[in-house]
Amino acid sequence: MVTAAPATCANHRKKNRVATCGSCGKALCGDCIVHTGVGVKCPTCTGVKAAKPAKAKASAAFTRPEPAARAGERKPWAVPLVAGGVVVLLVAAFGLMGRDSSDPVATEQVQTEAAAFTERQSEFVGPGGQRIGGTLTLPGAGAGGAVPAVLIIPGLGAIDRNSVVAANPPDAARDALVSTVGGIGLSSGDPLYRDLSEALARAGVASFRYERRASSAIKLREGQKLSFDEEVGDARAALELLSKRQEIGGAPLAVLGHDTGAMVATRVAAGNPRVRAVVAVSMAARPLGEVLATDLGRSRGPAVADAFRATVATLTTSGKSPPADTLPEILRPIFAPGHDAYLTELFALNPVTEVSRVAQPVLLVRGGGDPTVTVADTDRLSPALRTGGQVMAGSSQSDHNLTLAGGGHEHSNTATAQVTQRDPDVFGGLTAWVKANLAG
Known about the structure:
The protein is an alpha/beta fold. It is built from twelve helices and 19 strands.
């Protein structure tokens, strides 16, 4: 049974808890928060004298703390929000932006808690000095010994660390690629990565999910290009961070990739003895160009599919996309200027070859109603699995994101939010398989 975190500050009993000390777990109010290079701490653990609580005002619900700033660094600010009855502390750590981009130190920024699991926000450095934020989700209140963990690797269409573009629009596969190269979401977000984290936590397994380059949280700098090799480098850096977390210790790890993230997962796992298992969610066996051509043929007709195949052929042989004005309008955003090299990398990937390099057990997961990744794909991938491979297909109503058709709405006193209905059999089977392969 998980014990709920105290509602009030350990030092000021009349003040609400808005954060927790990352070292001792003490509940803290705004006056007791000390921002450090490794997260939120209490005055006792840092040796910093706590601020005297400000006199309450009738209209004030929170007093903004004013921690000392290092030379040349802007002071952070904190704002509490209430979401689903849980107080969440958001920290804008402006000082992080001014740090040397070559510094490889991962930084925990803030901790949030819920009854069934604990979430801690962290940062790591990927190739090129790119700072990338992520969320570590721990079972229960995060207390206890080391727990096994899963690195969740985003794929095409990742909007942020929590969500990917919805899989139900007619051009969903095309939209996912356009979202990636254009840095925009063309459809509503589906919180697949967050839901996977929470499901794993309830099964007693920790996880780490992170932002994908060119997503809403990490805009490409002027002149910066996407690179599949850098995506692999980001995943390796994230796995390194996860493996060194005190909460994980020496516990075994797994990697889980969605869509093209599954191929990133296979590269990260290959030759890495710390990784015990791989989960490939919605991984096609065919090259990405053929996957997209098939989807476009189904939604837009054979003429558009043929035009797409011809464009891919031109790109892969010459290294350059044809002029945009020669392409059907539906295809132009895919072949966005400046991303020819990245698209060439993606279209050249062979999923069967990638999965054959993995010695660890691999679980292939697909939605039973997914028109993009079908039984023909898993039938082609299965013979390439080297050890303990397994295929798991969801309900005939579950899509590319393992979402069931016909989601409803939940109502609160402030807003109406879309409810995402996951395939319970697939989520249950996936978490059970991961737990079994990380046992011992």
